[in-house]
Amino acid sequence: MLDVAWSVDELARTRLAFSPLWEIVASAGVLRHPGEHALHLPWVKQAAAALDEAGVDVTPLADLVAGRHVPRFLAPAPASPVPELADELADLRDVPARAVRRELERMDPPWPAALTRLHRDPEAGLERLANLMERYWAVALAPAWPRMRALLEGDVLHRSRLVAAGAVQDLFADLAPAVRWADGGLTVGEEFLVHAPGASHGRGLVLAPSVFVWPRVVSRTHAGSQPVLRYPARGLAGLWEAGGTQSPAALRGVLGRSRSILLAALATPADTAGLVRRTGLKPAVVAKHLELLALAGLLTTAPDGTHVRTAAADELVAAGA
Predict the structure, then answer these.
(1) pTM value?
(2) How buried is 169 (Cβ within 10 angstroms: 0-12 exposed, 13-18 middle, 19+ buried)?
């Protein structure tokens, strides 16, 4: 259980970020146990076929994430709000050998051959692992990354606005049932939590929306670094639907297909380009129907061009569902 007592200083140090490296790690676990991740089965089917056709063997990576303990060098806190995969892989290649061995020794035996090789020669093993992750990303995740990134960016934008408005309770309200805010404290009960004794507080928290963490919430603390809380991004349910978004049939009957899809896609705020990526609609179609939705009072547009559903639109979508 991660239990953080909050203060003004704690909140000031809290940040939002997501990680391509983490999505590689988490998605490898989804591929290994697809039955536990029914929401992602459309992606599993496509990715498995593509990996097989490309001859990419994910076993060495899947073996590392198969148990209850995911090595810390595979799941560091994101260093920036939107880190580049190349930078994260460069950091992975530079992990000290002693840190690799220490993390591997926490994993339950017996070890697969790939883990034994990595323990014997961490430097060469990390190079092989990083190269595998690059190939895996290119085949299994890169085609879906624009859609995934738009979803993750929308979640970050939504929660950033809550922080700016001082609505800290709302920031954590819909993360997951396991996450509870009460009496000025944040509590996370999660079976996969890795808790380091003596983990520091006063460092804030990294809130990291994720696609492939669903249906779980994963939190991690480690002495000397910020705690990280990874949770399913808002709007995830429609991610793998055709066109990227599913709208309720009742809503389509009232508003029409395109406008209902756009309102459903705005479960998290997005700009016009982001909505094109999320929905698969043509830019001209998106622009036209956004204008009509705004005239109807169903969305507003911020100065930076981000579109946000109004309270009336939220109620309409909920009623249609």
Answers:
(1) 0.73
(2) exposed
